Fold this sequence. Notes:
The chain is an alpha+beta fold. It contains nine helices and nine strands. It has helices at residues 7-21, 32-51, 73-76, 78-83, 87-97, 123-127, 226-229, 232-236, 240-245, and strands spanning 23-26, 67-70, 102-111, 137-143, 155-156, 178-179, 187-191, 196-197, 208-216. The strands form two sheets. Strands 1-7-4-9-3-2 form a six-stranded antiparallel beta sheet, covered by helices on one side. A three-stranded antiparallel beta sheet has the order 6-5-8, with no helix packed on it. The model has no long low-confidence stretch (mean pLDDT 94).
Amino acid sequence: MIELSDLPVLAATVADDVERDGVALVAGVLDPAEVAHVLERLWAASAESERRGVPTHAAGLDPNASNVRVFDLIELDELFAELVAHPVSDAIVEQVLGADYIVSNFTANIARPGSGSMMVHSDQGIVMPEPWLETQTINIIWCLTDVRADNGATLHLPGSHRFRTRADVPEDPISQMVPLRAAAGSIIVMDGRVWHTSGSNVTEDEDRALLFGYYTKPFVRPQWNFTAALSPERAAEQSPTMRYRLGLDITLNVGRAPTLS
């Protein structure tokens, strides 16, 4: 497992890889027991979301209901509040975006057999107008199962983090995309400018479960309104640093962070 003392070197190396390639892989962030525990809690969160009347199929995102989407993870289970602030992801995101980064969103996408691809997009392109001249957003993708091409690995267009406008995207980007393969317990780090889509799960009986932590520089409006989404009880559980990162206090987007600890 990764030691805390190794994080500065690891974060710097990953940041260099992301700057060069747009993506990076960090293996062994969670051990098998931790992976199984998180996956169990994810399915429980999915059921709880449905119980609260929030569907786990987003018709506007996916072609069929074989993609299970779980939103508002931090509210649904305190485990995800801990995971979005995991020391490994925190060190990497801070290295790339700076210590005053914020959490824009944290969601899950479980590709069940028969699931298809969503639209091709870049996450930075969704939240910021072009031109995209530098990295202002980043994804940390938690792999809760082994991820391969046949079970729906995320497809990405290599080198697309250097695209400055939509005009730079080729006419048929999917034909040039490659899958992001990883073992369960790994994280995939992806520059927010990388153009990508979800893969199709063509297996007969194998799920592909991913969590997507989306982080941005503080001037970028977050995708998820945590002030409205989190219950007072869940909000009260957050540390001062996480209150800042989730926008629960008045310091969000004022150009400086509180003392982060």
